[in-house]
Amino acid sequence: MATFLIGLVILFVGAAIYGKFCEKVFGPDDRETPAYSKQDGVDYVPMREWKNSLINLLNIAGTGPIIGPIQGILFGPIAFITIPIGNVIGGAMHDYFSGMICLRDGGTQMPDMVRRYSNKGVFTVYNIFLSVLLLLVGAVFIYTPGDIAATQVFGFSGAVNDPTTWIIYGVIFVYYLIATVFPIDAIIGRIYPIFGAILLFSAVGVFIGLFVKGYPLLNLWDDWHGIAFDAWAVDAATGEQAAFSYGQYFDANHFIPIFFITVACGILSGFHSTQTAIISRTMKSEKQGRMTFYNMMVLEGFIAMIWAAAAMGVYNLGLQEVNASLATGTIGVICKNILGSVGGVIALVGVIVLPITSGDTALRSLRLSISESLHIDQSSKAKRLGLSAIIFALVAVILVFAKSSPSGFNTLWRYFAWSNQTLSLFAFLGISVWMFENKKAKWVWVPLIPAAWYTFVTVTYIANAQIGFHIPWMPAYIIGVCAAAAYVIIVVWYGNKRAARLQKL
Length: 505
Fold this sequence. Notes:
This protein has a single domain (about 1-505), classed as Up-down Bundle (Amino acid/polyamine transporter I). The chain is about 70% helix and about 0% strand. The chain has helices spanning about 1-25, 35, 50-60, 65-70, 80-105, 110-115, 120-155, 165-180, 190-210, 245-250, 255-265, 270-280, 290-315, 325-375, 380-405, 410-435, 445-465, 475-505, and strands spanning about 230-235, 240-245. The longest helix is centred in the last third of the chain and has 47 residues, at about 325-375. It is globular, with a radius of gyration of 22 Å.
């Protein structure tokens, strides 16, 4: 338990210090925000700070900060340290600067930010990459909450041939369509406070339950290679039950890069930059950015820590099979064991809310990005509906494939997880160049340190992975290091070039 508590101290104390530092580097002021200068009653709508913060939290917190940590904790208590450190210097910083730059540039969306601070080639790659990712997000965040609702709440099979599965998918689908088409304050701004209350109940309830139930948690200084209390797992080779050891799992599964791809949203997520851009259009003041962007990502890190600890406790007590592929079932075990039947169901609803409230804004963001890139007027409800219909048709195709194919969803999730982390590299590029252009080059190490790390992580992973190039680990690591060095060199060179060009004007 001590390592878990140390991790929480790192998270909150580190966030207080580094968040204030990031705010100082950016320099928010009292200039008029796009919510007022471009107010249109649809996307540019002034909203209160607490509502913007809550909406942003629900937008960014999908199944990533729950499913990811449940799988990542199998690497042992080191997760309690790496999650908060990565969150403070990487994820929260990424969310703050991407949101604030979009805010200062007139409420622009991320594709336009990338175009503004890179070149045509990078922008084209990013725009295609982003569109595919947001489609995957929409499909994944219908699939996961739908299956959790079907199996854990209503007790259905969740099978592809069960009509109830598709009815639940359909309900989520209809909600996404409504949230995508109608003004942000008409649907999202009104219903999210309710969702937020449920989310906080589930997170706080599970957190308190960790101590009330006395869940046994390993520390860094404990014996990782011993049998983890009463935990057990299924031997992959024989299919028989076998003792589980965090140390053996750590040794066998390449903590770097696998852990940082698996945990994702609790540490850093490229998807978040598409969501902070949406909120940049509804903020009343730049000085609200630290709370709205930075602190909400820290809160997501807190959620990730809670679920990682709860999963370890469940595994250590032998209440759930130790198997990364059974993360969805682990959620149900945690909720019901800690909060009882009624409270457990409410907590499960909170878990279901997370991906739903990310999926709706992901598709909304995709509509905005496509419309602005292709100059499609969105003031007309009919035009918004027409563009949304095309997007939802593609999502439906992906969803049917994922559900119908035995390996469909696993393949979908692997590509989603990797592409999600890779997307952050484009945001770090934009942040770095913005610093060069705005005479803040001495602070460029702030985005470049996490950018270099995640270049190494994503390139190494895809080089080795079965969904990638099947290169052995040692050459994959070398390729990852070279890619990280190249990324830093190119960004610094390009940033200096852009700054020099501005000085001549």
